[in-house]
Write a structure and sequence with these properties.
The protein is α+β, with helices and mostly antiparallel strands. It has one domain: Alpha-Beta Complex (paralog of FGE (formylglycine-generating enzyme)). The protein has eight helices and nine strands. A hairpin with an 8-residue loop joins strand 2 and strand 3. The longest helix has 14 residues. The N and C termini lie far apart (39 Å).
Amino acid sequence: MKSILWIQLVILSIFISCELPGPQQDEQTQKEEQQMAQPEMIKIEGGTVDPFGTAKTVTVTPFYLDKHLVTYQQYNQFIEDGGYKNKKYWSEEGRKFLEKYEFWVPSTYHEAYLNRKALPVTGVSWYEAEAYANWRGARLPTAAEWTLACQGDTKQRYPWGDEFDFEAIDYRARLAPYAVGTREKNVSPAGVFDLVGNVWQWCADAYEGKDFRLEVEPTGTKPGPLKILRGGAWMSLRRHFESDYLYYDKPFHRLATYGFRCAKDVE
């Protein structure tokens, strides 16, 4: 599975020029940017979910979740506000990550994406996603919360239902991510867009090996060397889009298929 994701990164670097906007895109681009300038959150009512299809249920309390994936425009506000330099947004491990690699922008931070600010930000590590969430006064969602937002009380396989829909995510019709919220069918019962099929999404939880499925941590607070991702990306396998699919990676990896969205507690 790892080799598949690295192949995606190589292909994306080859075809990224396809995303450069032309004059005919200007009006649509402006509309997208206006809609995505400020994050909108949706309240997800609590419920019981089986996050990974193992008959092990988790009770989730109500929470807020970003309606859309975090975009380049939104993430750039974090950069311009000194987010990479302000240590208060970074965990101890996150600060070690910055000191070691000296990253100050996402790995995909270049003209082809910056000209389309409504694209989901990608090329960010788990540490960067966590720091952005802290800057916003939010947090990363747990895997159980992500599942509840995807399924609602329907327990359905995909955000839109139980049957795979090629049109919902333009499956295999694109060679890069698409602007958030532009695929009307790719929406969950709660009204959350692009939970699958656009970019993988970092979750708060640590993956703890083969026994993790039997010991789901509903608060997502356990530390660990691997972090969970959900949702699949623009060139993933169909199985990756199912609401109980579990993937994980090292928190410092910054693939061009990795993005995120934020969550927040209901006070």
